[in-house]
């Protein structure tokens, strides 16, 4: 018997090329799938974040509008308080003017009362002088007493 080892038939060049092509294509698909899965996960994450950011943006706009309205309300309160303080200042000035005028009137009345008292005292003194005997000389050298009563 002859000692020949039975060898399997050798694939043809075309078959080997097809197998290499299939292996290369499979490897590319595997690498593409890995990269594609990562990119798809990132894209999904971006879309989720975009949705969350849009919601946050809407919330921020609403909160900003609320703050603007509240700011306007506080501004009105501050303006009213400022006007109130201005009126208080005006009232204080007015009160000071009235107080000064009242002091002038009081002093005028006091002076008038003092003058009236002086006039009354002078009148009383005149009345007292009128009630006493007045002495005078008549042309003969005699002193006579006259009483108006």
From TrEMBL:
Superkingdom as given in the UniProt entry: Eukaryota
Pfam family, one: GCN5L1
Biased composition (Basic and acidic residues): 110-119
Disordered: annotated segments: 1-20, 110-149
Skewed-composition ranges (Acidic residues): 123-138
Coiled coil: none
One GO term describing the cellular component: BLOC-1 complex
Any one GO BP annotation for this protein: endosomal transport
Low complexity bias (residue ranges): 1-15
Family per similarity comment: Belongs to the BLOC1S1 family.
Annotated protein name in UniProt: Biogenesis of lysosome-related organelles complex 1 subunit 1
Organism per entry: Elaphomyces granulatus
């Amino acid at each position: 018997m002859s000692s020949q080892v039975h060898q399997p038939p050798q694939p043809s060049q075309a078959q080997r090329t097809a197998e290499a092509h299939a292996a290369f294509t499979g490897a590319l698909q595997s690498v593409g799938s890995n990269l594609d899965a990562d990119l798809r996960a990132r894209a999904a994450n971006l879309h989720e974040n975009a949705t969350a950011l849009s919601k946050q943006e809407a919330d921020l706009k609403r909160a900003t509008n609320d703050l603007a309205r509240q700011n306007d309300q506080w501004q009105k309160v501050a303006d009213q308080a400022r006007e109130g303080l201005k009126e208080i200042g005006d009232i204080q000035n007015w009160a000071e003017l009235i107080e000064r005028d009242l002091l002038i009137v009081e002093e005028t009345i006091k002076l008038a009362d003092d003058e009236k008292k002086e006039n009354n005292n002078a009148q009383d003194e005149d009345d007292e002088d009128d009630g006493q005997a007045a002495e005078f000389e008549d042309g003969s050298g005699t002193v006579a007493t006259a009483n108006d009563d």
